[in-house]
Amino acid sequence: PILYSYFRSSCSWRVRIALALKGISYDLVPVNLLKDGGQQFSAEFKAVNPMQQVPALKIDGITLSQSLAIIHYLEDTRPNPRLLPQDPKKRAQVRMIADHIVSGIQPLQNLSVLKQMGEKKMEWAQNCIASGFQALEQILQHTAGRYSVGDEVSMADLCLVPQVSNAERFRVDMGPYPTITRINKALLVLEAFKVSHPSQQPDTPAELRA
pTM above 0.90? Predict the structure, then answer.
């Protein structure tokens, strides 16, 4: 497999966690979203993903983009360890939390949106994340065990950790979100979350390396 990724991209990080959890080794092709006006806009990368976004994964003779589509494919083809619970209610809760983050929070503070916001970008990102986290905190109080849904790592957790990292980067006050904070802390000690971390990537700038 070949993963097209940017060290700081939260969508890429979700997929890196899934690959690590499932023990899938891959080659990484870095796509720098800032350099040369954004390498994702090159003709070469547009041929890989017409949406000009990371991540993209070449695997089993196909090329997939969109982080959750990639993770669902990995789940369908390499089910161990599983990232979706067998119980239909818990499975629905996992999907709900994942969608809440990938549709309701992250796109609003994505690089392409922030570019349009000019000087207000920090404030905009903080507001988008804070309003999403208020809802998420409430949901997690009902679904969480050790992790987002019960005591097993799920697709919801793969979305949660990168979003908390974004929140910290945009200096969001995490005080009002104790459940999010607790789950994030529990996940960050797991090996798959460590090796996939933005500070550990081949394209991480020297000053940001852990």
Answer: yes
Residues in Cβ contact with 4 at an 8 Å cutoff, skipping those fewer than 6 apart: 29, 31, 45, 48, 49, 54, 55, 56, 57
Cα separation values, 89 from 10, 41, 80, 102, Å: 27, 40, 20, 20
Higher pLDDT, 34 or 178: 178
Q: How far apart are CA 95 and CA 203, in angstroms?
A: 30
Which residues 6+ apart lie within 8 Å of 79 measured at CB?
Answer: none
Instruction: Give the SS3 label for residue 128.
Output: helix
Name 64's bridge partners: 57
- State pLDDT tens for residues 160-181: 999 999 999 999 999 999 999 9
Does residue 27 sit in helix, strand or coil?
A: strand
Q: How far apart are CA 50 and CA 141, in angstroms?
A: 39
Phi/psi region, residue 137 (left: phi>0; alpha: psi -120 to 50; beta: rest), is alpha
Dihedral (CA of 5, 76, 81, 22) sign: negative
Q: Is 121 helix (H, G, I), strand (E, B) or coil?
A: helix
